[in-house]
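[Meeting: bench + compute handoff]

Bench side (C.D.) handed over the final construct sequence. Compute side (W.E.) agreed to return the predicted structure before the next meeting so the bench team could plan truncations. Sequence as handed over:
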Amino acid sequence: MSTRLSRRGFLGLVGAAGAAGVAGSFGLTGCGRDTTGQTAQLLTSLTPRPRPYAVPLPVPAVKEPLLRDATTDYYEIVQRVADVEILPGLKTPILGYDGMFPGPTLVSRSGRRTVVRHRNTLPVPTVVHLHGGHTPSDHDGYPIDLVLPVGGWNPGAGHGHGAGHGAGSTTGSMTGDVRRGERDYAYPFHQRAATLWYHDHRMDFTGAQVYRGLAGFHLVHDDEEQALPLPSGERDVPLMICDRAFEENGAFRYPALDRELRSTPGVTSAYMEGVLGDVILVNGAPWPVLEVAAARYRFRILNASNARRYRLALDPGPGEGTPFVQIGGDGGLLEHPEGQDTIVAAPAERFDVVVDFSAYKPGTVVTMVNQLGSGPTARVMRFRVTHRVKDDTAIPSTLGRIEKLDPAKAVRTREWRFARGDVHGEKGWTINGRPFDPRRMDARPRLGDIEIWRFQADLHHPVHVHLDPFQVVRRGNGGPGRFDAGWKDTVDLRPTEYVDVAVRFTDYRGPYLLHCHNLEHEDMAMMAAFATT
């Protein structure tokens, strides 16, 4: 059933004085230090942290389509509450795609249409965004295009329809394409092979709902990628890295103002900069271990944390050569492989890397560490090299063809300033000094035009653009950074920095989003809408 639902802007942020009582109800004495290279605050667990490297790395199951026809693969995912064992011996309630965390992995082919029906049996509304997808506007997951719970939705009197709007318009009404119970998301996949991911994008509650489990991989393959002799099958491993804190009973610990996620958006004032957890999860497991042969492996690294940045390294290193050979990023294969001593990943960034374990003797234990963490968050996972095998894979010197966007052909430059600001009388996060309003289009780029978009920051802001990827032109007065190669859809914007990107939107007209992917910033107004014309 499809309904149209009006909605009034509502400010749910509270000042420090108002937040103090709420903070006390959460027992936030665990606001601590672990903030090197971060714009966020540490939230510590109330249950003892598990022993690291005690559980095997889980690999999310690949979902089979319900139906295939000549042009399209059809899937159904049921969003439901489930209790899963993340910490040994404890059950963690999650909001899960198919009751899993991470959700099932979907695999699609470039040029072949995929339709995913999402059925919402959760107690809260949801919105699904395919991050990195080249997607028509009405299937992109605009944050007020809600899928209401199949069992009905009544957020309570005085709060509108309950999508929240802690940082939006304060006057008038707005309309979202609201569905009851389920919605079909159609993805044409006229795009390159890439590591995409899907996650919740409900206005003002994205941070809390992703934190509770609503995230999964969606991989796209094409002929160009599959013609290369890269590691595949069991040696092509997705790694969803995120951090969480836990309550005494094993539940996720998150400083939401509204624990039921019904009407009051935002987090307590102590965590407005972002939420860091003290347990590192990889594919939903704490500090797991993966047994590997002495051969090349392809790892699709996704930073799915709400706010945490990572600097990943291998300990010990391989001795000779670089630990990571980067072959791809957000938007698919690079033109040429690039050796990386470390990988710095901001929230939502993806790094496609090859690690050659033949450089290690069987029996060697190799730890992936986080050089931006401390104590338990300085560890990520471990690899145990088991035995030597014949390895017929290789890393070609040329990987993919990338069309270069010529900045000299840009028709205009737009500036987007990401900074703290006034959000209707309260502290919040803004773009160009304005809080998000889903009815207001802050830019109207024409399809086919190349534009330069300049992102400027006060603090750390991972900036994500919907619909089409971009190419980094410069950082400040220099060229692109070490991790800026290829097509990007998210760029790590550091304090007081500006980054220029060249972007060209194609194929689809309609409203899309530009926002900070620190999810606490996003929920507290740091989004802007633009409409392609």
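W.E. noted at the follow-up: Confidence is low (pLDDT under 50) at residues 1-31, 157-173. C.D. will use this when planning the next construct.
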